[in-house]
Amino acid sequence: MTKPTIKDVAKMANVSISTVSRVMNSPESVIENKRNQVLAAIEKLKYKPNALARGLIYKKTNTLGVVIPDIRNPYYADIIRGMEDASKKLGYNLIICNTDRDKKRLFSYLHNFYERQVDGILYTSDPIYPDYYHELNRLKIPVMLVSTHSMEYELPSVKINDEQAAYDAVKFLIDSGHRKIGMIGFDLTDSIAGLTRYHGFIRALREHDLDECKNNIVYVNGWSYDTPDAAAKLMEKCPDVSAIFTVSDELAMGLLCYLHEQKISVPEQISVIGFDNIRLSDIMIPKLTTVAQPTYEIGYRSVEKLDAAIEGRDDPILREYLPHEIIVRASTKSLD
C-alpha cells in the first residue's frame, strides 16, 4: 500500500492542496468547517507530511547541521546538550557530524547540509581558514561559530575569552605563591585554543615579573594528546617546576597519570590546573582544579543566535563572550 500524499488529503477533504498546507502549519487561518474536513481526512488516511517536501514548499526544514571535530572528546557533551535543548525549544532538529579535522570530510558534510536544505550550520571549535570561509559563503546558509571565532571574517560566534581565561588560571597559581610555573599547550598554529591560551600564559608571567618561566612550555603533537611524552619533556626542561598549567582537562588528566607513575605527589610537590571543567575533572584523584567553560550555555546560546540569524532578527553582538571561572579543587595548593 502506497503512502498517502497531500494530494490524497486534499481530494478526500474536497479542498485545495494549499488549504491542507495551511491547516498543518497555521490552522487558525482556515475556517472551522474546512479545517475539520482536512483534519478528518488526515486522520482517516493516517497522513504524515514529509519534512523534506515541506521544506521545499516553505523554504525551511527546521533542521540545523552541526560539525564537531572529535565527537569522542568529552568537552563537546554539554555543548551538544545545550544545542539540543535550545533546538527543542525553538523547533529544530539537529544533524550532528564528526569531521576528525579532515577537510574533505568537512566539505562533504557541508554539501550534504546544502542538499538537505538545513536552515543553519553550527560550526564547532576549529579555526575558519580562507577556503573554509569561501565554501561556507558559497552555500549561502547561515553559520554560527561555536567555541571558536574568526577575526578575519564577519561570522557570529559564541565562546569564552580564551586568552583571559588562561591568564586567570596562571594568575591563580601565581597568587598561590608559585614562581616556577610550566605549561603544556596545543600547537601555536591552533589560533583558538593554542595561540590564545599561550598569550594568556605569557601575559600573566610578564605582569608578575616571571619572564624566566616563559620557556617552560611543551606542546602536544597536534591533537594527539601525547601527554606522557609532553610531561616528561617538561619535567626534563624544568625539574624544579612547582605548578603546571595545561590547556585542557584531558591534558591535565594525562599529566596526573604521568606524575603518579613517577611517584610525584600532587599537589604536595606539583600543583596542576586544567582547562574546560569536563565532568571527569570532579572525579579524578586528586580532583582537578580547572578553568570552567560554560559549555552548556555556549551550546544553548549558539542555537539562539543562529535562530535569530535565520529569522532575520538583528543581533547587536557579533562575537559573544560568555563568562568563565576558576574551580578550585584538590590538585593545587598554596605555597604561602
In brief:
InterPro entries: HTH_LacI, LacI/GalR-like_sensor, Lambda_DNA-bd_dom_sf, Peripla_BP_I. This protein has helices at about 5-15, 15-25, 30-45, 50-60, 75-90, 105-115, 130-140, 160-175, 195-205, 225-235, 250-260, 295-310, and strands spanning about 65-70, 95-100, 120-125, 145, 155-160, 180-185, 215-220, 245, 270-275, 290, 320, 325. It is α/β, with parallel strands linked by helices and about 325 residues long.
Task: Describe this structure as you would to a colleague.
The chain has a six-stranded parallel sheet with strand order 2-1-3-4-5-11, with helices on both faces. Strands 7-6-8-9-10-12 form a six-stranded mixed sheet, sandwiched between helices. It has helices at residues 6-13, 17-25, 32-45, 51-58, 75-90, 103-115, 130-139, 162-175, 195-207, 227-237, 249-261, 295-310, and strands at residues 63-68, 93-98, 120-124, 143-146, 157-159, 181-185, 217-219, 243-246, 271-276, 289-292, 319-321, 325-327. Helix 1 packs across helix 2 (17-25) and helix 1 (6-13) crosses helix 3 (32-45). The chain contains twelve helices and twelve strands. 40% of the residues are buried. It has 336 residues and is of the alpha/beta class. It has three domains: 6-49, lambda repressor-like DNA-binding domains (434 Repressor (Amino-terminal Domain)); 63-160 and 295-321, Response regulator (Rossmann fold, 3-Layer(aba) Sandwich), CATH 3.40.50.2300; 162-292, 3-Layer(aba) Sandwich (Rossmann fold), CATH 3.40.50. This is LacI family transcriptional regulator. Keywords: DNA-binding, Transcription, Transcription regulation.
